[in-house]
Design brief:
Chains A, B: Keywords: DNA-binding, Transcription, Transcription regulation. Two copies of one chain form a homodimer. Chain A has nine helices and three strands, in the order αβααββαααααα. By secondary structure, the first copy, chain A, is mostly helical. In chain A, helix 1 crosses helix 3, helix 2 packs across helix 3 and helix 4 crosses helix 7. The structure holds a DNA duplex.
Chain lengths: 216, 216
DNA sequence: AATCTATAAATTGTATGCAATCTTTGATCT
DNA sequence: AGATCAAAGATTGCATACAATTTATAGATT
């Protein structure tokens, strides 16, 4: 069970950060929940030192809030952050898609389409993770590792907001038809259409989630 | 001299990260230089624990490369990163300026103008820092803290590339007239002009630096 | 009961210590 | 000389230890 035992010395903090990131993004750890160093160290069978380093990495990504002498809490959700996240994703993903499109092969679009098939066959609990895969697959050929990392980080945050709304909102079906539209535009190598559709896809999702957040 | 002695318990890592960030961005620490934990701990009068946490924060920002069991080095410079940085800044700063402009007061534009005066009166060694202040002042009213933090991080990286080129390139005078143009467009509340000029300002600077990098 | 206060418990921040890993050095061999 | 390799030294990764700080508890006071 303990995952850490199989890991090499030297990247415990990195792996811990990944594990915690998943727990936060998936909603398993709720916003505001305190993250006690000793408890995390016990759970992952290590000491507090790598835990603290992992928390610093998550702090930099904005998934964890760190207050001196008080400790870490899972970052809270608020409408203002969602709005920023949506706007930043729109800007970054449009850039990534525009840059990737000239190098995007049919095989890669097929790969994205296969992920979309999986989305439609899977439970909503898998939507966030698969949605990220779908988009990242299309952006992959842009050859901009830092841009991709930035987008991935923004998706992690967005996924938190999706998580709280997905079960209530009937969002997945609309998203699916939008994904199909993006795929068609990619196959047709219609850059403007692909970009416009992606932009709308992101902004509309943001608006829906924002409305949901404010209501509840 | 030791800055750490005046600092409260609990944010040593944060302050260390700021100090190191400045040293890296200013070029005082050259690309590729190894950052030894023990040495940094001695210099800042602390132990290796806060040093390690500071290095994690800088790793997340991309200013430091961390290899397990080998240690940290100041992140190297390369043309590909500069290109990404330029594109990402263009996207993010256009968004910030567009959002800030409706809330930008004349007093705030005056503030930016004063910084531009200072740029023109100062040594080139101050250009990077002041240039960042100039732009951030104009973006301030956008009320998007995470976007601003993102842009600030990108500027830190950009400043490293500026640093190596500024002494050779006659860049500052062109940049100054571009800054004046941006200020005029802001005073006139001409959003499209301000955005177009800012976009070009960023992209042109990127191109100049890229050419310089490739040549040398 | 509510508020304050002092103490104890919990938790964090940092220093130190030691084992694992990497790097250097110098001896040996070809 | 150059390559090879073992041992010493340097450096990192992590665990433990302890002090500083916060939080919880219980008693005293109004």
């Amino acid at each position: 069970m303990p995952a850490s035992t199989t890991h090499k010395r030297g990247d415990r903090a990195q792996h811990l950060a990944e594990a915690l990131r998943f727990s936060i993004v998936s909603g398993e750890l709720s916003p505001g929940v305190p993250l006690r160093q000793e408890e995390l160290a016990r759970r992952y069978e290590t000491s507090r030192i790598p835990v603290r380093e992992a928390l610093r990495l998550l702090q930099a990504q904005g998934l964890v809030h760190l207050e001196p002498n008080k400790g870490a809490v899972v970052a809270p959700l608020d409408a203002a952050e969602l709005r920023e996240n949506t706007e930043m994703r729109e800007a970054a993903e449009v850039l990534a898609l525009r840059t990737a499109l000239p190098h995007l092969s049919n095989a890669q679009i097929d790969e994205a389409a296969a992920i979309q098939d999986e989305i439609e066959a899977s439970d909503v609990s898998e939507y966030g993770r698969l949605n990220k895969s779908f988009h990242m697959t299309l952006y992959g050929p842009c050859d901009r590792p830092r841009l991709l990392e930035h987008i991935a980080g923004l998706h992690d945050i967005a996924e938190r907001y999706l998580g709280v709304a997905l079960s209530q909102l009937d969002y997945v079906s609309r998203s699916s038809s939008e994904h199909r539209g993006i795929l068609d535009a990619c196959y047709a190598r219609d850059a403007e259409a692909a970009i416009t559709l992606t932009s709308r896809h992101i902004l509309d999702a943001g608006r829906s989630l924002e409305q949901f957040l404010v209501r509840s």
